Amino acid sequence: MRRRLTAGAVATATGLAFLTTVPSAATAAPTAAVDYTVVSADGVSAADAAAAITAAGGTIVSGNETVGVYQVTSADARFEDRAAASGKLIGASVRRAIGHAPSQIERIDTGSIGSGGDGHHGGPATMDPLDDKLWGLSMVRADKARRIESGNRGVRVGILDTGLDATNPDLAPNFDARLSRNFAPDLPDIDGPCEVPSCLDPTGTDDDGHGTHTAGTIAAAANGVGVSGVAPNVTLVELKVGQDSGYFFLDPVVNALTYAGDHGIDVVNMSFYVDPWLYNCVANPADSPTDQAGQRAIIAGMRRALEYAHRKGVTMFGSLGNNHEDLGAPRTDTSSPDYGGTPYSRPIDNSTCWDLPVEGPHVIGVSALGPSARKADYSNYGLEQISVSAPGGYLRDGLGTPSYQSIGNEILSTYPLKVLQAKKLVDADGNITAAGSKSVFKDCTKAGVCGYYTYLQGTSMASPHAAGVGALIVSRYGVRDHRHGGKTMSPDRVERVLYRTAAEHACPDPRLQSYVDVGRSTEFDAYCAGSEHFNGFYGYGIVDAYAAVGGR
């Protein structure tokens, strides 16, 4: 029922790379080398790919031979076109962002949020001090689930994101520094000056905040401080693939996915999607031949990495996206490329274009809900892509009640102090400023170690709720992992338990949901197709941690 990128579809697509036009010999060579990401054609050996890259005028800097993705440098302006024309390579593109974490969330504008009460929606009141503000924990019944299963330390959850602030006392107890890796060195042109000489930030840091927020929802420790996560006893592994600026590149993402497969990571959360193209298309006639080849390379690289991780036992969760559209009937894309070029109109063919990684193979797609369980206005939806739904926050929920446009309608989670200080929400002494008084919390241990917490909303916040439930499923039903230690469980089995135990939710009545009453244009109108058992807003239902671990 749900369309997913298949190996066969990509194999057909990669054949089109051979039709790319040969560049003009009149093109002048640049004076300096340029970095590229190159993807080999299906079935091409590493040796043949390397020879083809060399023949096209490139030098391999590093490569992931498992999935045929290479970082290449070349001073030849014709390299990109020569690579696309090679029968051994799908394509090459100037190394640029393919994912943008900030585009996955509606950033908080503290100056425009009304008081409207504290947004309290009956969150759990008997765990950590700020848990009474976590209505999402109650919605997925994670508070009840921990009576049966609170997570096993041998279950590892990979945070594919912008990093993880391990100084937060809610994340430090569950953080595995030994397994954590940074795959995304700072790039001064988009990230600013490097903080360390190597430009490779140490693990346990996060200069954006997005990764720290998702990590807290999944597995903040239930330790008497701050908040607790859906699975508070599992292990967190930072797999940094996002730049400090919030952008993501192809090679860090595929390297992290193959690393996860090789090192016994049980669950990964991917709250990002591929840019600079909102959709990566096989051969969109609106795109240049070079850009077509670059998108085919992204499609193939992501597909291979996702399939590899799945074969190695990794259960993968992805946010469905915040473009308020039915992914089975996408609108014309007017936002791409959103980095490295000027956006233009691109009609999107649903059968040959993909929103990645969520439309890739084996990725569990998650839509976002508000406290009332209404689909958030920004959340993508659709029968072909959705798997389940989860709390993602919805500022405009509760129209006609004191909670309408209250910050408490969003998702509270862990956040780095230095990012809050950069936003002037916390001062140099660690005190919350007037600007941060409505959106930031501080809580400290008896030893004086303080954690900071703030609200965000987006499908980026929904996916971690589902990933936390996935981690509980592995904790409850997984078997001993003789190779890596800890526990393991087939991703297909995790998926079956997740879907079978999700709380079914029927479409609204009427099925055409309008958001005009909360100030949105008719572009946000969304039609919910399907039955109570499976529909485009809720998928198989709202993830249910308690039912997933055996409760009723």
Outline the secondary-structure elements.
Blueprint: H1 7-15, E1 34-40, H2 46-55, E2 59-64, E3 69-74, H3 79-85, E4 89-94, E5 99-100, H4 135-139, H5 142-145, E6 156-161, E7 181-182, H6 188-191, H7 210-219, E8 235-240, E9 247-248, H8 250-262, E10 267-270, E11 280-281, H9 289-311, E12 315-319, E13 353-354, E14 363-369, E15 388-391, E16 411-415, H10 417-422, E17 440-444, E18 450-456, H11 459-477, E19 479-480, E20 487-488, H12 491-501, E21 512-513, E22 526-527, H13 545-548
Parallel strand pairs: 6-8, 6-10, 7-8, 10-12, 12-14, 14-15
Antiparallel strand pairs: 1-3, 1-4, 2-3, 5-9, 11-13, 16-18, 17-18, 19-20, 21-22
Helix pairs in contact: 1-9, 7-11, 8-9, 11-12
Describe the model.
It is a single chain. The protein has about 550 residues and is of the alpha/beta class. It has two domains: about 90 residues, Alpha-Beta Plaits; about 400 residues, Rossmann fold (3-Layer(aba) Sandwich). It contains 13 helices and 22 strands. The strands form seven sheets. Strands 7-8-6-10-12-14-15 form a seven-stranded parallel sheet, sandwiched between helices. The protein has a four-stranded antiparallel sheet with strand order 2-3-1-4, with helices on both faces. The radius of gyration is 23 Å and the shape is globular.
Number of strands: 22
Spatial gap, N to C terminus: 28 Å
Largest sheet: 7 strands, parallel
3D shape: globular
Strand order of the largest sheet: 7-8-6-10-12-14-15
Could you tell me the radius of gyration in angstroms? 23 Å
What fraction, in percent, of the residue positions are helical?
10-25%
Q: Which structural class matches the secondary elements?
A: alpha/beta
Strand proportion: 15-25%
CATH fourth-tier homologous superfamily of the largest domain: Peptidase S8/S53 domain
The CATH topology of the largest domain is: Rossmann fold
Query: On the 0-100 scale, what is the average pLDDT?
Result: 89
* Count of alpha/pi helices: 13
Number of domains: 2
